[in-house]
């Protein structure tokens, strides 16, 4: 124990005081820029991936206007735009003549179900 | 007195050769031509047409107009001056805004669009209800326009004209104002946005030419970085050692001149302040201020607005190279003038004792540019000045008419509102001229600091309320109002002592106690922001929330909601109904009387048609010019269905998926570029 203390003491004494004070030389400016760029792109990538996995309902994003889809499908009156129109979602278990229009909102929001008596 | 000596000294440099004059007159012809063309093209007779350009703008006028209304002559003078005094870091003000302008396009504008508002106070009223917030915000915004924007821009424009033409500062200002008011008062937003586009071209082109000349003179990019540290004035010793001594730190360039990320405690622009504090100020400037948001609301659809924001972001890269660096070059080339340190000397050179860094840019122009190009640079300054002044005039006119006048006189008709908006602009001009001497006296030294410090004391509560209002459903009227009031009180507690004690200079520091003035103004902005936010949230949690039925399409999380909103501002609707009823009654009365005096009317009509052409010719001309001509009078009020359809179109925020992806990718590229530059100059 004593030997270890002595060694470290001599080492500290032996070192020049400046050794503890040197400021590391700055990086080249373009290198700094490149590092900042890489960090930013990595962060963007992470955010993108999170977004991709958490909000997979890209097709029904109400902010996006999908052309061509509307013409192909039958759309019940007054339900354009926001309502998913596939037949599976459309039929309701409550009864034969009860239909439900599911509204699929943007990521993170709850899915509301409106039942329509026909 | 000081102005006269200035004038006589600068007389030599005045622009009087034919080349310069022809360039300037060509420039004016182009601007007026574009203004007239867009006036002819657009409908200015309605409130939507005049104030929102018919909501039909594509992305490039939006982006150019955002840039042109942001960059005023204050930037040319202020950025270059602060650059000359303190080095590169001041460009952080511009590069920080690049990110905030994206926030505007992606997060704020969708909400404002679906809310279907014209002014920002109007948004707050819809969101929170009640009159007091709306009134408070409109008055505070108008106040800030006069004290931070209009007077500073006019002052710096006048400094430049004084240097270039040798005119008296007031003559210069009045000449400028006449030109600007002509096309603001007459044109409306569409004319403004198209002329802004022209102005942007002129500004960027001219500034690039000057940058070329400046770098050529100083020996290239490397030359600037080699010589800047040695740019010292020749007289550095105090002539009166008994009265004051000059310490080396007052005339030496700062150690960290070439860095944007500076020490957090001891430097002039600490890095946490640059990142956080500036974002708070920018949040107010870019995302909740009428001048900027109004331009975005004029967009054709959301994708165009986003693309415009990206264009503006790219343009915001330039000020570092076309303003800050030339300012530093100016210090290298003319250290005796630009870096003067002895008060008497400075007074002789530029008329203020605290320092002459403000003349850095004008000095470069008058001494480096050849004939003809000097005229071009004058045009550049005029472009910067006129475009941002005109934007502020238009927006404050909008604020005043829509938020204040409309409330005082709810029965006012569209035509009356348009006229009042224009008269208000004239009034505003008068007040701003009266304020110029104060700007001149208060902070002749560093203009940019003056603007930023005033906005740091007043803007953070507004930024907090908008941010929370848009993103947090729980915030209610009481919270927002007391947050604003508390924030204002805190800001005033700092601003008033600072004005009383004065900001001081390097030689004579102000006597303001450290407790009040010691905190850096950007740190103060951060503190103020978080305190106001805490008040807003605290008070909101203690009071009742606003039910969802009032908030559909007014907050970010409910922006796609299709449910019907029960507006909180029902009062206004009642007012509108009353107005309509009054109008109808008036009409009926007129019809009645017409039916009664049918014969008499007929006789008069014949006479009238004879007399009209001779007396009404001038009036008609003026009427067309102001967009109030026959066209708008004959226009019928649109039917309710048409109105509903129109508002449906205006509040629509759906986007085409491909174009949406394109703007998203572009935004990422722009941010990546900006990050690289931040790193490069860190």
The gist of it:
The complex is a heterodimer of chains A (118) and B (682). By secondary structure, chain A is α+β, with helices and mostly antiparallel strands.
Strand order, main sheet of chain A: write it out. 2-3
What is the assembly state of the chains in this entry? heterodimer
Report on the biggest sheet of chain A: 2 strands, antiparallel
Dominant shape of chain A: elongated
Instruction: List the total number of helices of chain B.
Output: 28
Distance between the termini of chain B: 44 Å
Helix and strand pattern of chain B:
HHHHHHHHHHHHHHHHHHHHHHHHHHHEH
Report the end-to-end length of chain A measured between terminal Cα atoms. 90 Å
Tell me about the biggest sheet of chain B? none
Write down how many β-strands of chain B occur, each being a DSSP E stretch of 2 or more residues. Answer: 1
Task: Tell me the layout of helices and strands.
The complex is a heterodimer of chains A (118) and B (682).
Chain A lengths: L1 H13 L14 H26 L9 E2 L3 H4 L14 H4 L7 E6 L8 E6 L1
Antiparallel strand pairs in A: 2-3
Chain B lengths: L1 H9 L7 H24 L5 H6 L6 H12 L2 H14 L5 H24 L4 H9 L3 H34 L3 H50 L1 H8 L43 H17 L2 H8 L4 H14 L3 H15 L1 H4 L4 H8 L9 H9 L4 H36 L5 H29 L4 H25 L5 H25 L12 H4 L3 H22 L27 H27 L1 H28 L4 H5 L5 H11 L4 E2 H24 L2
Helix pairs in contact in B: 2-9, 2-18, 4-9, 4-12, 4-13, 4-18, 5-8, 5-14, 6-11, 6-13, 6-28, 7-8, 8-9, 8-17, 8-18, 8-19, 8-20, 9-10, 9-14, 9-18, 9-19, 11-20, 11-23, 13-28, 14-17, 18-19, 20-21, 20-23, 21-23
Describe the structure.
Chain A: Its main location: membrane. The complex is a heterodimer of chains A (118) and B (682). Chain A has helices spanning 2-14, 29-54, 69-72, 87-90, and strands at 64-65, 98-103, 112-117. Chain A is α+β, with helices and mostly antiparallel strands and 118 residues long. In chain A, β2 (98-103) and β3 form a beta hairpin. Residues 67-71 and 107-113 of chain A have low confidence and may be disordered. With 682 residues, chain B is mainly alpha-helical. Chain B contains 28 helices and one strand. Chain B has helices at residues 2-10, 18-41, 47-52, 59-70, 73-86, 92-115, 120-128, 132-165, 169-218, 220-227, 271-287, 290-297, 302-315, 319-333, 335-338, 343-350, 360-368, 373-408, 414-442, 447-471, 477-501, 514-517, 521-542, 570-596, 598-625, 630-634, 640-650, 657-680, and one strand spanning 655-656. The radius of gyration of chain B is 26 Å and the shape is globular. At the A-B interface, α2 and β1 of A face β1 and α28 of B. β1 (64-65) of chain A pairs parallel with β1 (655-656) of chain B.
